[in-house]
Amino acid sequence: MTRYELIIYWSKEDGAFLVEVPELPGCMADGSTYQEAVSNAERVIAEWLETAKELGRPIPEPRGKLSYA
To answer: Which residues pair with 30 in a beta bridge?
Structure first.
């Protein structure tokens, strides 16, 4: 389970649930169901964090509910 904020919404245009992770630039996922979208987001977050570590980039601490805005 992720500690990063997830913004989840239905996209009629895409016919899928979309997930944005605002604290991790460019980190997004989708899924045909809500659960699938969240599961995919958790996988993408893990990959984002792993890549950032490998590249020596800073990893933001989760800040919680909309504190990035």
So the answer is: 18
Q: What is the pLDDT of residues 50-66, one digit of tens each?
A: 999 999 999 999 987 66
Q: Per the confidence metrics, is the pTM higher than 0.85?
A: yes
- Distance CA(66)–CA(54), nearest Å, equals 28
Q: How far is it, in rounded angstroms, from Cα 47 to Cα 34?
A: 20
Please list the residues that pair with 11 across neighbouring strands.
16
> What's the CA gap between 32 and 3, in Å, rounded?
23
In whole angstroms, give the CA distance from residue 54 to residue 69: 28
